[in-house]
Amino acid sequence: MTAGQRRADAVAGAGRVGVGTGEPGVALEAIKPDAVVSGTVYDGYGRQAGGGLVLEGGVLARVLPRGYSGEADVSGAFIAPGLVDVHCHGGGGASFPDDVDPRSIRKAIEAHRASGTTALLASLVSMADPLPAIRALLPFCESGDLAGIHMEGPYVSPHKAGAQNPAAIRGADPEELTSWLEEGKGFVKTMTIAPEADHAMEAVRILLAHGAKPSWGHTAASGKTAAQALEATLRCAAELGFEGVPQTVTHLFNAMPPIDHREPGPVREFLAAAREGGAIVETIGDGVHLAPALVEDVHGWVRGNAAFVTDAMAAAGMPEGRYALGGLDVDVREGAARLAGKQTIAGGCSRLSDQLALFARRGALPFGQIVRACVAAPAKAASIEGAKGVTLDFELGKRPNFVVFDRSFSPVCVVRE
């Protein structure tokens, strides 16, 4: 642990995100189409890019120079592009796998958008038949309200099911998978698969051929099996001419064997692949799923190829109580969601701006690196750099997506398109 991490632990204590408690949210400032917004500007890669933004008719007209101190319609300490969450099961009391009516889907999207997440993948879970959920989400993908769909299962390990329904878990079925991807019309962006699942590599080829990618996770695989899957995916992507990073890792450390000093297991292989640029790993930075210092170690080691995700379920932005995830009952207490009557973690309760604030306040990671992990890295992970709601660079003449944060890293203004 670095000195900075020790200082951060002393300041932040246990380092949990204070969500799921029913506490009132931040009152966001309104903004007009013609406005001056001041604050230190960061682009999606975490680079300082100016001292404010000028909007004319909702379009970016000018990026103010660093240190701007003139009048502004909205003033903050920091301005970052809209946050990008590529693993999210719901929020605002609604669940993407369970609530397929449009009003519920809209409610879940808005629960995250209101706190600064301007681009979102809707995550499903292992289901006997995901087609009704895919069909319900498709209009929101086509309108740009969702950037796509993430399927978490059902081709995962029954030994590392976590909060996945064991009855729905199965080996990969190429014909079944093809039908889901075709129904998704190109909006299924990622799919969590266990490297050891039957026909896993057949599924990888089908995913890549449809413009989607595997996300390794919910696995009991050995390190050797994980390494073989990672290498085989890189070869397959090269054969198919797949552009960009062809694979990700679903919530690193969670639902997979821990590192052992004699049998390091899949985690070491996933980290090595990310460090070399062959994969992007997800970390859930809510202080519940992982120790914050470990999250900081990972983000410091893999050179920008780590993305914060929420894994949020219906309880995000809501009071504690009982909720559903993939047909299973989940109890939320003390900011943690667990399967009813068990200690198994069942998704998250945070929103991405909560995680940004947690790690910014801890101070061990540079703020720019945190921004990159909340914007460019997840956009790259899901290949949604050009999707509605995603801003990587503040380009003049474009409708930007951005969040204004105060000095405590709380959002005070959210602008989407």
Inertia-based shape: globular
Largest sheet: 8 strands, parallel
Radius of gyration: 20 Å
Helix content: 25-40%
Strand content: 15-25%
**Tally of DSSP β-strands:** 19
Distance from first to last alpha carbon: 40 Å
Given the structure, what is the number of helices? 11
The neighbouring-strand order within the major sheet is: 5-8-9-10-11-12-13-14
**pLDDT averaged over residues:** 93
Q: Regions with pLDDT < 50 over 5+ consecutive residues?
A: 1-14, 18-26
Structural class: alpha/beta
Tell me the series of helices and strands, N- to C-terminal: HEEEEEEEHEHEHEHEHEHEHEEEEHHHEE
Model description:
Helix 4 packs parallel to helix 5, helix 5 runs parallel beside helix 6 and helix 9 packs antiparallel against helix 10. The protein has 417 residues and is α/β, with parallel strands linked by helices. The protein is 28% helix and 24% strand. An 8-stranded parallel β-sheet has the order 5-8-9-10-11-12-13-14. The termini are far apart. Strand 15 and strand 16 form a beta hairpin.
Question: Can you give keywords for this protein?
Answer:
single chain; 417 residues; alpha/beta; eight-stranded parallel sheet; six-stranded mixed sheet; globular; disordered N terminus
Compose a concise summary of this entry.
The protein is about 30% helix and about 25% strand. It is an alpha/beta fold and about 425 residues long.
Layout of strands and helices, then pairs:
Blueprint: H1 3-12, E1 35-42, E2 48-56, E3 59-64, E4 74-81, E5 83-88, E6 90-91, E7 94-95, H2 102-113, E8 117-124, H3 131-143, E9 148-152, H4 174-183, E10 188-193, H5 200-209, E11 213-216, H6 223-240, E12 248-249, H7 266-275, E13 280-284, H8 292-301, E14 306-309, E15 321-325, E16 328-333, E17 336-339, H9 352-362, H10 367-374, H11 376-381, E18 402-405, E19 411-415
Parallel strand pairs: 1-4, 5-8, 8-9, 9-10, 10-11, 11-12, 12-13, 13-14
Antiparallel strand pairs: 1-2, 2-3, 4-18, 6-7, 15-16, 16-17, 18-19
Helix pairs in contact: 4-5, 5-6, 6-7, 9-10
